[in-house]
Structures are given as structure tokens and as C-alpha cells.
Amino acid sequence: MPPKARALNVFEKWHRAFHGTRKDSVKSILKTGELLIPGDTLLGGRKLSEGPGHYTDDWKPKDFDTKQIFMSPSVRYSGMDVYAPACEFEDSCTKKIYEAKVVFQVYVNPSSYKVGPETIGEKSRIDPHFSNKEIEWFTKERGSVIPYGLLIKLK
């Protein structure tokens, strides 16, 4: 955790959420400790873009802003393929091949984000603990989201 986490008392005052990502973004997030917004340039020079299945400037509902950090109070939602696409992982000891997905646990400043509905077109309830109408959180404030854990799901 960066020093600002203690100074801002994030452990007691900020909300916890999840942010699914592609494996090729993990290294940059771990090195910088920050989530970026589509259009930003990651450490190493790669430009961050919306992934397949995400809204883009050319394909989105009217007035929807794609240039934000998206997260969810639901690890199930953040772990869906559109946010955390599966990749292959080979155990170096056993040589067994796994399907892996990655999701970051994050703290988010409660005054920085808005709450909205799912944006992937899912009709059935995604998570029994959250309504599909309030399962996505989003913010334009880069410093208001602090990653603190990396979850890896292996199948």
C-alpha cells in the first residue's frame, strides 16, 4: 500500500471493491499501484484501451462515458470474462495447464464514485448480494482507487 493509504485512513473510511483486468495489465498495476483510464499510457508505453465486449466511443449508450475507472462491489461481476478474460497458465513444477483469471481488490474513496447498472447485457442476477442495477461503480478520479490485493482464480 502506498503511504497515502495510511494518511487518508483508507482502511477504515474507504469502500472495498474489485477490478477485473487482463493479464498483460497486471505488471503495470503492480509497479505503479494505480488503475488507469482508457486512453492513458501504461508503464512501458502500451496505450490502455477498452477490451472486447466493453463499451467504446463508437458503441455505447447515449451519454455513457467510457473514459473512467470501472469496478464493482461484486467479485463475481468483476471476474466475468469481459473484465477478467481467461488466460493459460502452466505450473512450472507439475507442467499442468490451468485457466487463470485476475481481479484486483481495491479501496475506493466513497465520495469519488457513482453507482450504476451492469453494462454487459446480463439479464439474470449476477450476484445474490447485489442488484444488477447497482453492481458497477465508476470514477474519473485516478487517485481515488488504491489496489491492495491480487486475486487469481485457477481452473
Q: How are the elements arranged and paired?
A:
Elements: H1 3-7, H2 10-13, E1 15-21, H3 23-32, E2 69-71, H4 75-78, E3 87-90, E4 97-108, E5 114-116, E6 136-139, E7 145-154
Antiparallel strand pairs: 1-4, 2-6, 3-4, 4-7, 5-6
Task: Please provide a written account of the structure.
- It is built from four helices and seven strands.
- With 155 residues, the chain is an alpha+beta fold.
- It has a single domain, classed as Phosphoenolpyruvate Carboxykinase, domain 3 (Alpha-Beta Complex).
- The longest helix has 10 residues, at 23-32.
- The mean pLDDT is 90.
Q: How much helical structure, as a percent, in the residues?
A: 10-25%
| Mean pLDDT across residues | 90
- The count of DSSP E runs of length 2 or more, i.e. the number of strands, is 7
Radius of gyration: 16 Å
Low-confidence stretches: none
Shape: globular
Strand content: 25-35%
- Provide the succession of SSEs: HHEHEHEEEEE
The end-to-end span amounts to: 29 Å
Question: Major sheet, described briefly?
Answer: 4 strands, antiparallel
Q: Tell me the number of structural domains.
A: 1
CATH top level class name? Alpha Beta
Supply the number of helical segments.
4
Structural class designation:
alpha+beta
Label the CATH architecture.
Alpha-Beta Complex
